[in-house]
């Protein structure tokens, strides 16, 4: 496919990593573009591990420990895993890890760019919904208890986040197909048609600049501003409640139940504040790279390094849930230690003891039985150390 590097209408998102998905990624790709693809692909793959651990902890709390009100957190954890997988799949295609034909080519050319940006945007708005959930729990406890705590409302909030993220990134459907059509017209047209096409191109560039600016604001700036607004209000409310020093005015409940629920709300509210600050620090710089990206900067080394750094920060933001929740939540921290340390140790001890029982078939005369060794004090102390 012939490439046009003179018009910004052909510019793609930095997540895209290349202008033409059908070009030979092993020979014709500039070095900085190839390095950017490898760096982002590795960041996505390595980021899956903390995201999967975080998801496992929430699944354990929801279905094994029978904890409640984890639906929204589970949806956020699942979306972070899906986002990293989708992002890695596009760069795997660019790096020739996937075949350049059939369904993979169609997915990379027509779906991936929109899906990748829409998932990142939907994830941001799901954090906004989480901050809104804490805002209502602290400021409107009766309304929150009667309306927003229901599973149906949780599903509505998740679907609303996905819908908003998709709407903010629809430009990548429209303008990618428009750029292909315009490239075809410029290649197979007369001189008069090309002149008319150039006049239309200037109009399209202005229109695309406006749409791209609005999209960047809705995709990056607006979620961060909403997170900060809700978080500041939540922190002020928590400080006010700390001064009051009584539980009746917090959730309209009394006794141990009020104390437990208040502690849960305080923990998640502080988590939302940390996530809001981290979103602004890790995603707002990338907003400028997204807006300024065009074909002329595609092979620029300085801009490539900036884009690598921005991609890494965005991937890291999807992984910080594990560390933030472990830092703020005692229940989460205990569950994480149990899954990573206690449960494997118990499994190893059980497997080791079972293996000893199987090997204890016919002990020799005068030799203590392995069953006796297992029940001895020395063996119990050894296994306790393990």
TrEMBL record:
It is found in: Cell membrane. PROSITE patterns: G_PROTEIN_RECEP_F1_2. Residues 50-325 form the G-protein coupled receptors family 1 profile domain. The chain crosses the membrane at residues 38-61, 73-93, 113-132, 153-174, 217-235, 268-289, 301-327. The keyword Transmembrane applies. GO terms for molecular function: G protein-coupled receptor activity. Its main location: membrane. Keywords: Cell membrane, G-protein coupled receptor, Membrane, Receptor, Transducer, Transmembrane, Transmembrane helix. It is a multi-pass membrane protein. Residues 1-10 have a biased composition (Polar residues). GO terms for cellular component: plasma membrane. Residues 1-25 are annotated as: Disordered. This is G-protein coupled receptors family 1 profile domain-containing protein.
């Amino acid at each position: 496919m012939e490439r046009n590097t003179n018009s910004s209408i052909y510019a793609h998102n930095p997540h895209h990593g290349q202008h033409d998905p059908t070009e030979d990624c092993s020979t014709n790709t500039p070095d900085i573009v190839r390095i950017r693809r490898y760096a982002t692909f590795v960041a996505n793959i390595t980021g899956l591990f903390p995201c999967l651990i975080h998801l496992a902890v929430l699944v354990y709390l929801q279905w094994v420990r029978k904890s409640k009100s984890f639906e929204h957190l589970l949806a956020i954890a699942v979306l972070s895993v899906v986002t990293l997988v989708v992002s890695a799949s596009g760069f795997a295609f660019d790096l020739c890890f996937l075949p350049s034909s059939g369904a993979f080519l169609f997915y990379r050319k027509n779906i991936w760019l929109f899906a990748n940006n829409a998932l990142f945007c939907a994830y941001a708005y799901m954090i906004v919904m989480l901050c809104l959930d804490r805002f209502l729990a602290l400021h409107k406890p009766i309304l929150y208890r009667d309306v927003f705590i229901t599973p149906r409302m949780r599903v509505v909030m998740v679907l609303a986040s996905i819908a908003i993220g998709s709407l903010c990134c629809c430009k990548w459907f429209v303008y990618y197909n428009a750029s292909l059509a315009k490239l075809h017209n410029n290649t197979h047209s007369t001189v008069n048609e090309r002149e008319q096409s150039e006049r239309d191109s200037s109009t399209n560039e202005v229109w695309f600049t406006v749409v791209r600016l609005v999209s960047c604001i809705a995709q990056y700036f607006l979620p961060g501003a909403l997170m900060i607004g809700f978080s500041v209000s939540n922190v002020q409310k928590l400080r006010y409640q700390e001064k009051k020093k009584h539980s009746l005015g917090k959730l309209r409940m009394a006794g141990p139940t009020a104390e437990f629920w208040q502690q849960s709300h305080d923990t998640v509210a502080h988590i939302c504040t940390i996530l809001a600050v981290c979103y602004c620090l890790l995603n707002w710089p990338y907003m400028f790279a997204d807006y300024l990206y065009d074909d002329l900067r595609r092979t620029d080394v300085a801009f490539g390094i900036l884009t690598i750094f921005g991609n890494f920060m965005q991937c890291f933001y999807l992984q910080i849930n594990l560390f933030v929740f472990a830092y703020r939540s005692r229940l989460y921290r205990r569950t994480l230690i149990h899954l990573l340390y206690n449960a494997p140790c118990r499994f190893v001890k059980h497997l080791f003891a079972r293996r000893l029982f199987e090997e204890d078939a016919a002990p020799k005369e005068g030799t203590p039985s392995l069953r006796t060794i297992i029940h001895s004090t020395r063996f119990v102390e050894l296994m306790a150390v393990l």
